[in-house]
Amino acid sequence: MELTFLGTGAGLPSKERNVSAIALSLLQEINHIWLFDCGEATQHQILRTTIKPRKINKIFITHLHGDHIFGLPGLLSSRSFQGGDELLTVYGPSGIKEYIETSLRLSCSHLSYPLSIVEIDEGLIIDEEKFQVYAKKLDHVIPSYGFRIIEKDKIGELLVQSLIDIGVMPGPIYQQIKENNVVQTEDGKVLYQKDFIGPSKKGRIISILGDTRYQEGHREFIENSNLLVHEATFEQDKANLATDYYHSTTTQAATIAKIGNVDQLVLTHISSRYQDEDTTRLLDEACEVFPNTSIATDFYQLSVELKA
Amino acid sequence: MELTFLGTGAGLPSKERNVSAIALSLLQEINHIWLFDCGEATQHQILRTTIKPRKINKIFITHLHGDHIFGLPGLLSSRSFQGGDELLTVYGPSGIKEYIETSLRLSCSHLSYPLSIVEIDEGLIIDEEKFQVYAKKLDHVIPSYGFRIIEKDKIGELLVQSLIDIGVMPGPIYQQIKENNVVQTEDGKVLYQKDFIGPSKKGRIISILGDTRYQEGHREFIENSNLLVHEATFEQDKANLATDYYHSTTTQAATIAKIGNVDQLVLTHISSRYQDEDTTRLLDEACEVFPNTSIATDFYQLSVELKA
Ligand SMILES: [Zn+2]
Ligand SMILES: [Zn+2]
């Protein structure tokens, strides 16, 4: 699980930061990439990475503000010319379907792949073999969602030595033990999986929130995430502005990370009023509350590793 | 009158060429800038120029393909945050109104300036003090327009020496002669403007065509332009592809420039199949037919001067 921040600015593109988009690479896990938000020129940013648009099979839209969706029609159209033929599903708030369908219809864009558009509500929105995704409504001027991506726990390793010790030698039976609770060997031994499988590996949890005010009520949703991606449009001094415009400050984002007991926090959606030289200050504010914080820049990448 | 090519590629953005947009600076003439097409990330390209979005007061859309319109909602929204408060008018084919209005409504974008959207037909679409614009339907898979921008002829210079010779000295009367066909001086002299104004200066003509197949019938529309901007998606060898996809070749664009007796031709909308090293070949093909040709690259600028 590897994140690439494709756009880390707020509202408008600037020379330093494009508008919102984050790619979550699940290539190792399921051979796909998921995209979170798709501001204008996201496809242009992707051109500067190794990401293949045809590998993107899910796009999650946090909310319908232009800086989060205006790159969608272009990316969807271009994917047709980049070898895309697999199903792509877009998840987003009510209105996303009309936006995409109107844009594609009026521009006479014909897609080479099936497109599914799911208008979401709160709760479990995806439950697949390896991943679950939950959505939660945040506190923004228009409906804005957060996503909690949960990797399902992985079965532990086969305790090969224990099997050999009781005379069960390597062969197809080993795979059967991994896949069934109880197995009988050819010579009649009954083997319970739990006796021959080590402790399961805890799956990873990544929480990516859309634009939002600070709300203590978000704690439970992001709790114990390995990684929290949170907006920090303003510095703490501008907390009033943040409240007025339904955004968060550095300190507020760090606070939710702390009370939510997450491992790591990445701040994004930084106002264009802040220049490169201001980011140390913004980072310091957050780290005072939650030390394991970083501020994303465009093309910033980080891996979220399985815990030992 | 100065053109800046903001995007010169066809269909998809590439690292070398963005999708279509051309800015026509009329800052000296009317203190405004006109934009022709607005592919995705046009506002990003503008960030790399000296163009002020609030100076753009007219946007002409040749046709509704995504590579010509997907930057429109973002540019319109951002202009609100860049000091835009003057009326902006968008001219384009039927459907442009629904596209813009749906995008702005669903993204909850509130503009700080009045926006007028005019769905055009063929003929005279603008007739203002200094400029006229005509539109013509071309030959593309969907309705695609060309625009002929005509600067009205400028009144010649006042023949100051002739006035002095007959005893009319510099003063407010000079301005009156410029503005009226007949003027009477305080001491009763009747002066006819035609006797005291030099030859009028021929206004400039720029023709900018949208995506189109070659059609000899376009000759009249672009005739005698100081500058013709024409698409050349393909090399001459690919004339069949050009016909199939409703586009033009280098040689075809040069042919219409030649038979239309224009002064200068600029080719744009170059397929991403052509790399930098291919452009000499493309240019040679065109120059064989029409020597005064250039191929636009992103950020290419050229001035169209008044003729002496
Ligand atoms: Zn935003
Ligand atoms: Zn085109």
From TrEMBL, chains A, B:
Enzyme's top EC category: hydrolase
Database matches in SUPFAM superfamilies: Metallo-hydrolase/oxidoreductase (SSF56281)
InterPro entries documented for this protein: RibonucZ/Hydroxyglut_hydro, RNase_Z/BN
Record: residues binding Zn(2+) 1: H63, H65, H140, D211
Pfam families registered for this protein in UniProt: Anti-Pycsar_Apyc1
Catalyzed reactions per annotation: Endonucleolytic cleavage of RNA, removing extra 3' nucleotides from tRNA precursor, generating 3' termini of tRNAs. A 3'-hydroxy group is left at the tRNA terminus and a 5'-phosphoryl group is left at the trailer molecule
EC number: 3.1.26.11
Note accompanying the cofactor annotation: Binds 2 Zn(2+) ions.
Active site: D67
Cofactor(s) in the UniProt record: Zn(2+)
Domain of life: Bacteria
Record bears the keyword Zinc-finger: no
UniProtKB keywords: Endonuclease, Hydrolase, Metal-binding, Nuclease, tRNA processing, Zinc
Ligand binding (Zn(2+) 2): D67, H68, D211, H269
An example Gene Ontology molecular-function term: 3'-tRNA processing endoribonuclease activity
Subunit structure comment from the entry: Homodimer.
Role noted for this protein: Zinc phosphodiesterase, which displays some tRNA 3'-processing endonuclease activity. Probably involved in tRNA maturation, by removing a 3'-trailer from precursor tRNA.
Family statement drawn from the similarity comment of this UniProt entry: Belongs to the RNase Z family.
Protein name: Ribonuclease Z
Organism: Oceanobacillus arenosus
Underlying gene: rnz
